[in-house]
Amino acid sequence: MNIVFCDMAVSVDGFSAGPNQSLENPLGVGGLQLHRWHLERPEESAAEIAAIVDAGAFIMGRNMFGPIRGPWDSAGPEEWRGWWGEEPPYHGPVFVLTHYPRESLEMEGGTTFHFVTDGIAAAHERALAASGGRGVSIAGGASTVQQALSAGLLDELRLHIAPVVLGAGERLLEGVGDVQLEQLGVTSSPLVTHVRYKVLH
């Protein structure tokens, strides 16, 4: 089914990353705690983990792709190729929002990063066309999810709520307006509560 969905790990106080994100600490201070459920006990959330990358195409923000800011060559002569090594987990087309043009980057395992400079609506259109009739995943980060919600492009929001209070950082649902949600399902384990919502348009 060709729906647009999003999976995001969040703290109970609504943050998807901690403060002071950096190359050495990409999830910010305390942010790694949000992901214990799939790093430490993957068998408990196997279905949710598999669903995260079960899409025909993906959209992500530049901050999720990497820590480089400004022009792509501002980091020096070595080209940044993402956080995931030579074989990222997406195995399909990934459309990265950016203000700076860059040639598409083909990786091992079928992942190709395409860099989109004309906004979330253009990335959404390209991802739908490239998805082969399968779903499109808004892979993050928070700003990209906010843009998709504000533009009415998201059909399903899946929150993976960790029993963690970060107190500060990058809040997921900041500035998205009056978003109406219908709860579709809940499952839980000691490290996470998975909640699926339909976004009502």
TrEMBL record:
Domain of life the protein comes from: Bacteria
Residue ranges of every copy of the Bacterial bifunctional deaminase-reductase C-terminal domain listed in the record: 4-187
One matching Pfam family: RibD_C
Name assigned to this protein: 5-amino-6-(5-phosphoribosylamino)uracil reductase
